[in-house]
């Protein structure tokens, strides 16, 4: 089967500006996912650059804009794609080369919410335990693979990537706010009680639409707002 | 000037909450006014004038106008915050918005209490 592509290409060393490349590739019967096709494409044009690692939707490396929607190439079925398949880098982040973007800003926001359990009380002899119910609250939060599909599909993150934490960061923020072993809830809420960091979210739910792990950052953001209201009411 | 990122103005929650509360006020007022239009036997000019001659209707109208203006302030300021990055221009737009809303407030008071 032949597959047609329209690829975003940009190599800052030789190209004055980005351009779209029309290219086609003969697929093997074993090629099922978009990532298989992209790897196959490298046999036609080995200058094409993209990130990939685990090829099974766990590492979050091969996030890209596929026919206008962010997703992971490795979990996107070839069969369901309209041809020519238009592939672009994640929107809103600086392009390093072809489909590879500079994720510094994204991880800076992730770091800003302190993505680790903070607990200064003396550790117990074994481990800090949670009840099954308390543990359940973390479901739908901890599974995030930081692929950045959500944050780079969010207009608020496009306009203010330096000040708005973005859906991925806010999902992680709630993951630690919701953790009963964490004792820094108040500081975490203080950290987000700003007109930009949390409240640039206008609940348009682009993040929910694209998340390859089917997580719901908008719901987590709603829960953070609820806790903030609870704190003052 | 040091190019430092400044965040942490703690009025995000207040404004977000304000916008929701004012929305409820406007909704209640709109339903009330619609109910009057539907239920009032004769919706003539006289009936309309009699309604707005009641002090409590004028007070409720004033409260709703204030709610509308506060709601608009947060909403319009959000648009400037999203799309206008140069600080000077943004501040100018903020001030222009405040002046415009203040003007609307004075005019609304004149309309509600003047007749």
Automatic annotation (TrEMBL), chain A:
Belongs to the succinate dehydrogenase/fumarate reductase iron-sulfur protein family. GO terms for biological process: respiratory electron transport chain; tricarboxylic acid cycle. PANTHER family: SUCCINATE DEHYDROGENASE [UBIQUINONE] IRON-SULFUR SUBUNIT, MITOCHONDRIAL, SUCCINATE DEHYDROGENASE IRON-SULFUR PROTEIN. One of its GO terms (molecular function) is 4 iron, 4 sulfur cluster binding. Residues 134-164 form the 4Fe-4S ferredoxin-type domain. Two distinct, membrane-bound, FAD-containing enzymes are responsible for the catalysis of fumarate and succinate interconversion; the fumarate reductase is used in anaerobic growth, and the succinate dehydrogenase is used in aerobic growth. Keywords: 2Fe-2S, 3Fe-4S, 4Fe-4S, Electron transport, Iron, Iron-sulfur, Metal-binding, Oxidoreductase, Transport, Tricarboxylic acid cycle. Residues 12-93 form the 2Fe-2S ferredoxin-type domain. This is Succinate dehydrogenase iron-sulfur subunit. Its EC number is 1.3.5.1. It catalyses: a quinone + succinate = fumarate + a quinol. Transmembrane segments: none annotated. Binds 1 [3Fe-4S] cluster. Its cofactor is [3Fe-4S] cluster; [4Fe-4S] cluster; [2Fe-2S] cluster. It comes from Chitinimonas taiwanensis DSM 18899. Pathway: Carbohydrate metabolism; tricarboxylic acid cycle; fumarate from succinate (bacterial route): step 1/1.
Automatic annotation (TrEMBL), chain B:
It is found in: Cell inner membrane. It comes from the Bacteria. It is a multi-pass membrane protein. PANTHER family: SUCCINATE DEHYDROGENASE HYDROPHOBIC MEMBRANE ANCHOR SUBUNIT. SUPFAM superfamilies: Fumarate reductase respiratory complex transmembrane subunits. The chain crosses the membrane at residues 21-43, 55-76, 88-109. Membrane-anchoring subunit of succinate dehydrogenase (SDH). GO terms for molecular function: electron transfer activity; heme binding; metal ion binding. The heme is bound between the two transmembrane subunits. Pathway: Carbohydrate metabolism; tricarboxylic acid cycle. A ubiquinone binds at residue 83. InterPro entries: SQR/QFR_C/D, Succ_DH_anchor, SuccDH_FuR_B_TM-su. Keywords: Cell inner membrane, Cell membrane, Electron transport, Heme, Iron, Membrane, Metal-binding, Transmembrane, Transmembrane helix, Transport, Tricarboxylic acid cycle. Its cofactor is heme. The lineage of its organism: Bacteria, Pseudomonadati, Pseudomonadota, Betaproteobacteria, Neisseriales. Heme binds at residue 71. GO terms for cellular component: plasma membrane. GO terms for biological process: cytochrome complex assembly; tricarboxylic acid cycle. This is Succinate dehydrogenase hydrophobic membrane anchor subunit.
